[in-house]
Design goal:
The protein is α/β, with parallel strands linked by helices. The protein has helices at about 5-10, 15-25, 30-35, 55-70, 85-95, 110-115, 125-130, 140-145, 165-170, 190-200, 215-230, 245-260, 270-280, 295-300, 335-340, 340-350, 355-360, 365-370, 375, 405-420, 425-440; strands at about 45-50, 75-80, 100-105, 145, 150, 155, 155-165, 205-210, 235, 240, 285-290, 305-310, 320-325, 325-330, 365, 390. Strands 7, 8, 11, 12, 13, 15 and 16 form a seven-stranded mixed β-sheet that branches. It has a five-stranded mixed β-sheet with strand order 2-1-3-14-6. Helix 3 (about 30-35) runs parallel beside helix 5 (about 85-95), helix 12 (about 245-260) crosses helix 21 (about 425-440) and helix 20 packs antiparallel against helix 21 (about 425-440).
Length: about 450
């Protein structure tokens, strides 16, 4: 029988032990069946995902395409709240020996899930047999899907941190080239000059990025600039060793402070909704944010375009923060329950709908879609696809990944510099101190 200690240990691996304490009694019918139900019907496939809103609607359409092509299969798709509640339920269901056959996970979470023994390792030969050879996937996402040379996830997309801009404001500011595309912004001074030019047009701000109650966005901004200076990870050895390059961190923070405190081209206090609104109402010409905000900007019915975040520090290869959604096979108690080929058939179908998924802003990890005329004509989504090649993911740490303690702790240190509360030097030292505290906390795995 599964012990309470085992449940808490598995949930704590994702930093959600408190949720696990309540999860056994109050997690709802779907999860309760994970502990008490028998094996699902032979032609039933259970699929879990955390998508709501626009992404949820697109995911349902992708599921419908699978169901239409596989009428003999009953697809039971279940949606949970994104974040720790979702990963808690996935953990408990897997430990309870009744996981879904297929589930969505962020690639930044995959190492922790795999180390906790919650995922089935995948043989690339099995994927190839089901129409998914390694060469059909984005190389960076494929690499991130591995841990200790074992494949644990099948990448669906890459969602990088990018640059949005109002084309009408950019045109008035003289920032467009002869073809109507944004001129070269690479280099620290060129980007600042572009923000200054946009500020002249708007009369308020050159650009915007969230800083209030949004440590994750601040983390993404920092990791993008930091990784353009060095590829030294923030932490190594499963998060137990702090390897932060203090000089690079200070230089990246100094540039961030330049944008807000010195040049005053970005406001130092705006939340996520406010930053988007500044762009859509013309109070700012640029917005730095994730690709997932594209629908919110499109809904405002304004003229805008997108491109990769500028290469501020030009002496190193291009880099920007990114994460990826992936499809995983939670570890089932038996091969019969796992239904490998049945599950991979479903995964292949989902990849085949990557064009639909790309409409929500995500860059397809499935290269056959990326190479189509239909995707190239999808704007502004196709304009920043090249950013996926420079994707920098969270370092492997049990306290890392999407919405994690790592992002919050580093992001809070960045915000203190962004708002002028700390100098870049002090901010870098504070970041190292925060990371050392996390690195010194024993892993529950």
């Amino acid at each position: 029988m599964l012990s309470r200690r085992s449940l808490l240990r598995g949930a704590a691996a994702l930093g959600v032990a408190g949720a696990a304490s309540a999860g056994v009694a109050g997690c709802g019918n779907t999860l309760a069946q994970g502990f008490t139900g028998g094996a699902p019907a032979e032609r039933q496939l259970n699929f879990w995902n955390p998508f709501t809103g626009g992404d949820g609607a697109r995911m349902v359409a992708m599921q419908d395409a699978y169901a239409k092509a596989h009428a003999a299969t009953r697809l039971k798709a279940t949606t949970f709240v994104w974040g720790n509640p979702y990963y808690t339920k996935l953990t408990l269901a897997t430990l309870g020996r009744r996981p879904p056959q297929v589930a969505v996970a962020h690639l930044s979470k995959v190492p922790t899930l795999a180390q906790a023994g919650l995922l089935s390792a995948l043989d690339p030969a099995d994927l190839a047999r089901n129409g998914m050879p390694e060469g059909n996937f984005d190389p960076a996402a494929w690499k991130k899907a591995q841990l200790d040379d074992e494949l644990y996830a099948i990448p669906l997309d890459t969602h990088p941190f990018v640059l949005y801009f109002r084309t009408d404001i950019a045109k008035k500011a003289g920032l467009l080239d002869g073809s109507g595309r944004l001129a070269d912004l690479d280099g620290p001074d060129k980007f600042v000059d572009a923000l200054k030019a946009a500020k002249e047009v708007t009369g308020e701000w050159g650009g915007a990025v969230a800083s209030i109650k949004d440590a994750s966005t601040q983390y993404r901004l920092f990791l993008s600039f930091y990784s353009q200076l060095t590829r030294t990870p923030l932490v190594t050895d499963q998060g137990t060793e702090v390897t932060l390059d203090l000089d690079a961190a200070e230089e990246a923070l100094a540039y961030i402070r330049r944008l807000t405190i010195e040049e005053k081209v970005l406001p130092a206090g705006v939340d996520s909704t406010g930053a988007i609104t500044m762009l859509t109402t013309g109070k700012a010409g640029f917005l730095m944010d994730g690709v997932w905000q594209v629908i919110a900007v499109q809904d405002a019915k304004v003229t805008f375009d997108m491109r990769p975040l500028p290469r501020i520090f030009t002496d190193a290869p291009y880099a920007c923060f990114a994460d990826s959604h992936a499809l995983v096979l939670p570890k089932a108690p038996t091969a019969e329950a796992q239904r490998l080929d049945f599950s991979l058939e479903f995964v292949h179908s989902m990849l085949g709908s990557s064009q639909l998924w790309a409409e929500g802003g995500h860059v397809p990890a499935w290269q056959p879609t990326l190479a189509t005329d239909a995707y190239r004509k999808l704007t502004p989504q196709s304009r920043y696809a090249e950013a996926a090649a420079g994707a920098v993911y969270d370092p492997v740490a049990w306290y890392g990944g999407a919405g994690s303690t790592l992002q919050i702790q580093v992001g809070d240190a960045v915000t203190s510099v962004f708002t002028g509360a700390r100098s870049p030097k002090a901010g870098a030292a504070n970041m190292r101190s925060r990371l050392r505290k996390q690195a010194g906390t024993p892993s529950p795995i």
